Amino acid sequence: MEDILSQAKKVAEQAEVFQISTKVTPIHFEANRLKQIQDKESTRTALRLIKGGKVGFAQASGFIESRTLVEMAVETCQFGMPAKFNFPNPKAYPKIDTFDLQIGAVTIDDMVELGEQIIATIKQHTSDILCESSITRGIASVHIINSEGGETSYNKSFFSLSFEGVLIKDEDMLFVGDSHSSCHPILDFRPIAEEVIKQLELAKRNVSISTKSMPVIFTPHGVASSLIAPLVSAFNGKLVFDRASPLKDKLGEQVFDKNFSLWDDATLPYQVASYPCDDEGVPSQRIPLVDQGVVSHFIYDLQTAALANTQSTGNGSRHGGLPTPSPSSLVIGKGDASFWDMVRDIKEGLAVELLIGAEQGNILNGDFSGNVLLGYKIENGEITGRVKDTMVAGNVYQVLKQLEAIGNDTRWVEGFLLTPCLYCSSLSVASKAG
Amino acid sequence: MQDEIANSLKGHKADYVEIRLEESKATRIIYRSNRLEEIGRTSSLGGNVRALVKGVWGFVSFNNVNKLRDKVELAINQARLVGKETSKFSQSEPVINVVTAETEKNPMTVPLALKKQLFDEYNDIILSTPKIQTSNIGYNDSQRKITFANSEGTYIEQTKIDISLRLAAIASEDGQVQQIGLSLGSQGDFSAIEGLQEQVKQMARRAIRLLSAPQAKGGEYTVVLDPVLAGVFAHEAFGHLSEADHVYENKRLQDIMVLGRKFGDKHLNIVDGAAVPGLRGSYKYDDEGILATKTYLIREGILEGRLHSRETAAKMGEKTTGNARAINYLFPPIVRMTNTYIELGTLPFEDIISDIKEGIYAKDWYGGTTSLEMFTFSAAEAYMIRNGKIAELLHPVMLSGNIFVTLGNIDAIGNDLQMNQGGGCGKREQSPLPVSNGSPHIRIRRCLVGGS
Questions:
Q1: Cβ atoms A61, B22 nearer than 8 A
Q2: For residue B82, which residues of chain A lie inside 8 Å, CB to CB?
């Protein structure tokens, strides 16, 4: 890395080298049986230059001569965007716990046993179910150095356990599932098994639902699959700067329900989306995005922040290219109602557990529309069964403007979202008749 | 290197072993509004070993391509640790071949300056359209040389070139935001994405017209799909279900997907095949070294075939189809589609819509997904059909349905097959894989549309 930086400094005004090395061991169960054991090692090195005031970029996986990488980056500089920022050299970084040595003590046998246990537990409840499960153990090392004297590195451990089951009766398929991830090893499969069994219980019977507007409860998985994609794009500083976000002029305004709060938080200990610094070496923080319904911040990387005349929020994240603003962990604040309080409040309605296709709509406008892959009908304050052939459509800003209630219990979904259930008073539901 | 690979594969106690080495170069260019936001080059060198022992796979991936024999041993030992069953893997004759990329205008030889000039022009067209708020352009090209060898004596080198381009125009007025996109791709011919000025202009204008369009009312409609969207429908609604890895260890799904079952009327033929030349999903050998084929999934409405890897073919007692694909060396090959399409019918477009009293004409692709039983896909452009005529423009619509029912509800197939080369397919973390899909215009009765 030092060699790349020193060669780059000779030809450019500023330079930065980012390196990430990972070692990941996933094991996969398919059709109730262990199918595959993987061992993946990879190293990626990225060079960013500022030359002639413009940004150049090149990266390599595997071996590359320093000289070649520098030449590739220099070639792109002449066309690159004008650099509005300097590479950072912060005095200090927050201490964020992202590494647990215990991860190294988990053996493949332990992982196999975990998978076998969860499958056995679910099959004990529903013997005909076909199970898939993945258990992943890994470590990542990140190292960043730049020509301005900035240098930082950290290690992260991660572990995840996911389960998916399908139950087929004639041509009716029921999909259930849950997952959990942490920087600690996950040795207890029971929380996931309990969630899956809850889904199986609630979905025991298929019931029909009418086509009309009705109250809808989004469970934590429902929130993740329906409402999050539009919010992630709306709070992206880049879309705000381009005036493509519906929130572009709403900073400081009451846009959401006064009980709705949302943070981006990279500082939570032992969460897989946490980090002491982002992918360009900016210290991480906890950023309030919505504070009691008021839009309070957007998320930025260095370049976008400079263009927008503000500060990076430590959200520069690399997805195979240059850093770009991305959330770390998103956290939605708790309310005071339980899921069952919400259910009891509804005469006729729907609880959405999983929506597919919601991200395919016009998410810039906040629209979402999708097929209810797993959802429950509510009648007279009780869940009566599972709905099928049903679509919901709505707009995130309308849904979140006035919430009937917010759940008093939060849970992690998909490793990056901590959310309660959200209850909205009216949403369009369309169902196939008969 | 060929000798080292061959030696690394010799003398192991495994049912099957393969090595894949991959060397690639790629370019990525991103515009956002009037900024060329990212221009970067990537180089990659890596590989993997996959070993089958007693029914379990060991898989090892790496960037350091030295000491291949150690990696082979690691993969085998992992699998041996837990393997308890008998491996099933279809027979294949060893192949030795070198396949080069045949291309009209290789993107690797087009200077960055010329690429930038072209995209600048497209971007200017979008941004100079009144009421357009912003634009997005994403361009990727890659050339990869893949060396594949296995313990049966196969040694294949293949070079593949891929190009993808997505343009989007975003219009905004009175707090409302609407966008329209255009996705294109090619297996290595840069000229496929040149000369699009007129299309880009039309796209930007449509984004503006969407601002004043109403939203469809949710419910069931007779829906007519254009060739692009019908191709996405073929991919989502049936292609994924035809991937044998969903079926091969699932007895109940095997009962549902039994060959010979009637899925649609006699006019319905659905095909997948990498042996159909010149498309983004085309290749000579798949990532298990099996020669590409063309497979009828549905012929005359009847389920005739499905897509296989060597393992799924062996377990189901069917023939391999050459559909095992890996997006890169970081992943093992899994069963994937290649070029998927509904074959030509006989009806002109006018006849397809002429007897629809109230329906929806849905065009162009935005996205699609499936759960095997249920599918959803979204149209970028939609119109009401009233009394046999195309009527007012609608906001983009989302269509959804049950696969087993919907294919039988196709009651008209057009005479105008077109293939769409844009986009890519995602499955189990491996995305976006180059594929193409296509269809003539089709009409579906009783299709569920999400809306107000």
A1: no
A2: 34, 37, 108, 112
DSSP letter assigned to residue B238: I
CB contact under 8 A, B371 and A58: no
Any bridge partners for residue A16, and if so which? A48, A146
State the alpha helices, DSSP H only, in B291-392: 310-316, 349-354
Question: Considering only CB atoms, which chain B residues are within 8 Å of A374?
Answer: none
Question: Side chain identity at A38, as an amino acid letter?
Answer: Q
pLDDT tens-digit map of A321-377: 999 999 999 999 999 999 999 999 999 999 999 999 888 878 888 999 899 999 999
Given an 8 Å threshold on Cβ–Cβ distance, is B61 in contact with A39?
A: yes
- What ipTM was assigned to the predicted interfaces of this complex? 0.91
Q: Residues of A32-62 as b/e, b for ≥16 C-beta within 10 angstroms? A: bbbbbbbbbbbbbbbbbbbbeebbbbbbbbb
Q: Is B98 on the interface with A (CB under 8 A)?
A: no
Q: What is the 3-state secondary structure (H, E, C) of B73-99?
A: HHHHHHHHHHCCCCCCCCCCCCCEEEE
pLDDT tens readout for residues A22-76: 999 999 999 999 999 999 999 999 999 999 999 999 999 998 999 999 999 999 9
Burial class of A291 by CB neighbour count within 10 A (0 to 12, 13 to 18, 19+): middle
Q: Does B113 touch chain A (CB under 8 A)?
A: yes
Chain B residue whose CA is closest to A245: B177
DSSP A99-147: --GGGGG--HHHHHHHHHHHHHHHHHH-TT-EEEEEEEEEEEEEEEEET
- For residue B432, whether the previous peptide bond is cis, meaning omega lies within 30 degrees of 0, is yes
- Residue in A24, A34, A136, A225 to test binding to B, most B beta-carbons within 10 Å: A34
Q: How many residues does chain B have?
A: 452
Q: What stretch of H or E contains A175?
A: strand A172-182
Task: Find all residues with CB under 8 Å of A45, minimum gap 6, and list them.
Answer: A1, A4, A17, A18, A19, A59, A60, A64, A69
Is B234 in contact with B377 (CB distance < 8 Å)? no
Q: What's the mean pLDDT in A289-302? A: 98
Token pair belonging to A270: 């032992």
Adjacent-strand bridge partners of B32: B35, B136
Q: Which residues of B touch A37 (CB under 8 A)?
A: 56-59, 78-79, 81-82
Q: Which residue has tokens 């930086």?
A: A5
The minimum CA-CA distance between A147 and chain B, rounded to whole Å, is: 20
* Residue A225 DSSP label: H
